[in-house]
Specification:
Layout (H helix, E strand, L loop, with lengths): L4 H17 L16 H11 L5 H12 L13 H17 L4 H7 L5 H16 L4 H12 L5
Helix pairs in contact: 3-4, 3-7, 4-6, 5-6
Length: about 150
């Protein structure tokens, strides 16, 4: 490639202009500014931890309520099946980034509106200080999710 003198001058002018507008070097921070605490490490590990899966939430919730995991998929509407399933759905909404239709497929092929209803029902129960609020809090600690 042949470079003409005018191209060379143009490039040299570009370099001189770049040096004029180049930012000044930043002051270097002192080593004591980089003190890392134990809490910083714990927070970093929390961020690196994998988020809980829908399956894990279902298993932990079923174990907590003392019901079989099958209750998460069944079409039964009895209270002993509904409350654990609704709690698991609420926790999935809170701790996973899955869409409502995907969550519905994981809970026995339910429609996304059924998932929305379960989430709203648990939110209402928590607001009214229903005993399930304590269960949700305990399950949140067991699951160990960080998303909110």
């Amino acid at each position: 490639m042949n470079v003409t003198p005018s191209q060379r001058e143009l490039y040299a002018g570009h370099l001189s202009r770049r040096n004029i507008f180049w930012p000044l070097p930043r002051p270097v921070a002192k080593p004591e500014a980089y003190q890392i605490t134990k809490e910083d490490f714990e927070r970093a590990w929390e961020l690196l931890a994998e988020p809980p899966t829908i399956r894990k939430i279902q298993e932990v919730t079923a174990h907590h309520f003392g019901v079989p995991v099958l209750f998460m998929f069944t079409q039964r509407r009895a209270r002993e099946a509904y409350l654990p399933r609704a709690a698991a759905i609420y926790l999935c909404k809170k701790y996973t980034l899955k869409s409502l239709p995907v969550m519905g497929r994981h809970f026995g092929g339910r429609d996304h509106t059924t998932i929305m209803h379960s989430v709203r029902a648990i939110e209402k129960m928590i607001a009214l200080n229903h005993p399930i609020a304590k269960d949700i809090e305990a399950l949140s600690e067991k699951i160990g999710g960080t998303h909110d």
